[in-house]
Write a structure and sequence with these properties.
2% strand; mainly alpha
Length: 326
Amino acid sequence: MHASQGRSAGLGLALASAFAFGGSGVAAKPLIEAGLDPLHVVWLRVAGAALLMLPVAWRHRDLVRRKPALLAGFGLLAVAGVQACYFAAISRIPVGVALLIEYLAPALVLGWVRFVQRRPVTRAAALGVVLAVGGLACVVQIWSGLGFDLLGLVLALAAACCQVGYFVLSDHGGDESDAADPMGVIAYGLLVGAVVLTVVARPWGMDWSVLGGSADMNGGHLPAWLLLAWIVLVATVLAYVTGVVSVRRLSPAVAGVVACLEAVVATVLAWVLLGEHLAAPQIIGGAIVLVGAFIAQSSTPKAPMPGPVAGSDPVPRDALTSAERA
């Protein structure tokens, strides 16, 4: 009874996390179009979330001594790298397309597992990769010579590559007796990301007056500060926290599959709120990408085996899920 209730609560939290993360690009794009540089929007998001997570960082301050490399890598790749590349990408291509390209990460992780770690992969995982790549070809309309800005596509692919770093770092040390608490890793990842982005984005040159004005959202106008508050409070802090708690109540594989809804949420919200309509082949391709991601993420054996066959979900039980990076 209690296990069933806990699983239901975990599923609800995982859904809340996917919806929260899915709204980040839709809220960020109007700010970018209002005059803020994509890097400045990322800095505002990460710095604001880092300030709110300071109490959590203080509680897990021992991680600085125990896991400095993990915290630095997580901050550089899973926080600063993913978000900077993703926000830069949505300034040039539709939100839904950028996020769908990000979901090539499971395929790239399989490449890491197969060719770097030299571990065999299941046929189901390989099928998931093929489906994801084929679906992506439909999304970007490769038959018409790439219907979107090439640099935007490259930036979205770079975000997917940074996600690979996220998976690898989440797997690193996860089975150790002194494994890092996910909440502490998130808190310090945001702090490290904020420091790095401060150097890269140079926020002292930002046009702060934009935050006092309004931003256009498909013909409507919303206060810029309200959009920023949504990005920091809902699409970052709430999304990370609900995602981490859901992992504790569900298996990482189940939480990762639910996280695939993030791409659906982002695409639908961009369609409704930003007027970014996708053609029928692109919608079909997006569905194929998600199916491929689902197959790849759910193809890891549930129990340790003498010669483990790897899928694309190398995340240990107490680590983070694939949704907790954007």
